[in-house]
Each structure stands twice: as structure tokens, then as C-alpha cells.
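=== RUN LOG ===
request id: a7f3
mode: sequence -> structure
chains: 1
length: 312
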Amino acid sequence: MSRKSDHGISQRKNVITRVVTELCRPDSYDSVYHKSSLATAMPSIEILAEIVELLKAVLFPGYFSDPEMTPETMPYSIGSNLDKVQRLLSEQIKRGFCFSCEIKEREACLECEDRSRDLTRKFISRLPAIRSLLATDVTAAYEGDPAAHSPGETIFCYPSIKAVTNYRIAHELYLLDVDIIPRIITEMAHSQTGIDIHPGTTIDERFFIDHGTGTVIGETCIIGRNVRLYQGVTLGAKSFPKDDSGALVKGIPRHPIVEDDVIIYSGTTILGRVRIGKGSIIGGNVWLTQDVKPGTRVIQGKQAEPIMTSSE
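=== RESULT ===
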């Protein structure tokens, strides 16, 4: 080997050695390093994706399961899927608890294992209610979009139904105080559809996001029945209060309340704990930081005005 080749190899090794040394400095990795106190595995994105697919097969039988399934064979198919969900989800919930746990005694993990199994059973018991809500979302999508040829098309194709399905699954886990898993599930749909719904959001039945890309719905939003949004709508926070130490105050209501039968068109931004009254229509590209009375139409560049009813 030539002296020139030896010099090149030496240079490459020196670069790697220097970079490794820099990356292993505690001040370099302090804010991006994670290690469970008991070296427990992290939640698995792949397994959580599998769980969501199994749940979709349960919630929408025939669409994401055996196409030859019949009402007679449905109990066997659903039972098999839920048995697998119970085993996989219980382990992922436990890993979620371990993700931020500070306990260092292995014996203490037994409590989390029992709690994870109990929460999984509680979640599974809520699946009929989740399906009932999703059925109304599907109906709203079909009735609200003239391009939809059947309810099944919205189930199989529409990003709104995909994102809302993940949200409704995640929201139930959120209500059960499951750590991190709900956020992972909604972020999976976010990355696939461009629709960002925080699992803490409260959304009533018959919810539809037409097109959907770029829609953002914050953690403390409350959305009523029969609400329709279009792409690029943001229901966000106006400001982020801080405590005396300068840290953000978390968990306080800071996102909009949208009452029943509201339509919000594309590109609109609504910020803060404002209330959009029942039956209002918010036009495209509107910026709102104040309450809107029920039955109001808000259009860019114009003052709010009452909606004229057919009788008027």
C-alpha cells in the first residue's frame, strides 16, 4: 500500500475519532439522550402501526380485514384481532409508562404491568363507542362531499377518515391517562395525511375535514357536532403564558371552542380560547382572535354579519 493511501486512511480515522469525541461529550447529548432508568425498551412505532391496522379491521370490517369475511365469520375475525391487540397494546402502554418513569426498583414495574393490562381492557371496552362515532364521521364525509360516490369510498380513500380514526383511537387512550402512546398514534396520521389533531382535542360526532392537508387542531380545542373544516385551517393558541421561572404553563384551556353546525373554509386561522357560535360560517383565509356570535358569517375584509335564513 502506498504512503499516499496510508495517509488517506489515517485522515479518515482522525475525522471519525474527532467527531465521535465531540458527539460523546455530555454537554453535546444532554438534551437529546434518553435512557430508561431500568433500561426498558422504547415504544415501538412499527408495533403501534400494526395495532392501529388491527383496530381499523375491527372498526371497519371488510375494508381492512379479510374481504371474504361474512357476518357469520365476523365474531371469529374480530375476536382474533382483539386478542392480538390486547397483548400488543398492553406491552406498548407499559413501555409508554417506562418512557418517563424515574423509578429505579424493578419490583415497582409490576404495578405498571398490572395497570397497563387494566387500561388495555378498558380501552377495548370503548371500541363500540368509537365505531359509533366513526360511523357518523363517515356519513358526514359522504354527505358533505359531492365527489364521494359512496360511504365506503370515504373509509378507504379519504385522509380525513384516516386522521380522525387515529384521533378517536388516541383520544380514548388519552382519556385513560396513557403516556405518549396517544401522541404517537395521532402523529402517525399527521405524517401520512398532513392533518394534525392533538389527542387531547374533544370532537363530537359527524366531524369532517374536506381535503385536509395542513389542518391543525390544538390540544384543548372543543369541537361540537356536525362541524366541517377545509384544508389549511388552524385552531391554535394565541399565546403561551409562563410561570415565575419562565417555563411555559401547560394544560390550561388555550384553543378555540367551535359549536355545532359550523363550517370553516380553507386557510383560516382561529387563535386563543374564543368561541365560534353555532351555525356560523367562517370564510377562507380569515384571521380570528375574538368570539363569533351564533349564526354569523365572517368573510375576509368584511365585518361579521348575520346569516340570512331562507325564511328571510
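=== NOTES ===
The first strand starts at residue 196 and ends at 197.
The chain has two domains: 37-194, 201-312.
=== END ===
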